[in-house]
Predict the 3D structure of the following.
Amino acid sequence: MIKKPCIPRLPVILGIFALILPAVAADKLVESTWAASPAIIDASAEEWSEQALTSEESPAVDLAFRNDAENLYVLFVIRDNDFLSTLEATGMTIFFDYQGKKKKDYGLRFFRRQITPDLFIQILERRGQVLSEEQKAEIRTKPSYFVNDCEIIEKKKTSPVGKPPVEGLDAPVFRYVKQAERTVLEFRIPLGQKTWPAAIQAGPGGKFKIGFEWGGLTKEMQAARLARAAAASEKGAERETASEDHARGSTTGGFATGGASSGMSKSGPKKYSFWLDVKLALNPEPGSRS
């Protein structure tokens, strides 16, 4: 008598997958804590010393979240500068997804750059600051300025962050300090203003996915790499032609090899990224601070 193989019933299989999939697919949930007073954005971790940090091991990062009714505050510490990669060139991009996915359709890119005095004036005016001609003249006395800037990413299109549409609303801002062993970044991002894309579309008690990304090649680095590859390819072709000419005149002539990959490393600076689920805190004393 031939025994039939034992095939688990479909409900049993589905039940097994129901137990396995959440453990595999779910991102770490981090609960923000309520900020009794607005955070000072100065890239100092001292203000966060009493708060438990959430850790990522690869890359080596510690981070924490606070919020009030108006803003989300983020502390982001790269514990080992080996994981810094090209952050100082690429900046830090923070993505937000409100549908439980990991889409990069919307985010904010925070970066530091050196600019001309006239561009510095444009940025200040874009942020709503009114400058007199005397102030503009004073700004132009310096050859250049370093600014911490921010741009909005919407489905791969970028636009500068302008003046907040609501009086008293803060614009996104960040600061960072690179130390010998680690780098500390601190961010302030406005909450809940649906009419302004520079704000997180959630309020106290809300939940969303947040993704952090930095490093890798900038557009300028990619262009430089392509230029080097093209130059190497051209030189390789010249060597190959010279070798062919030499081979025609000698039976012992060799054939030179070359090409775009000669002397080029395929690996570049590493890009780092990871996602978390964040739940914003509710005001523990609703009547004291809205």
Notes: The chain has five helices and 13 strands. The two ends are 76 Å apart (CA to CA). The first strand starts at residue 29 and ends at 31.
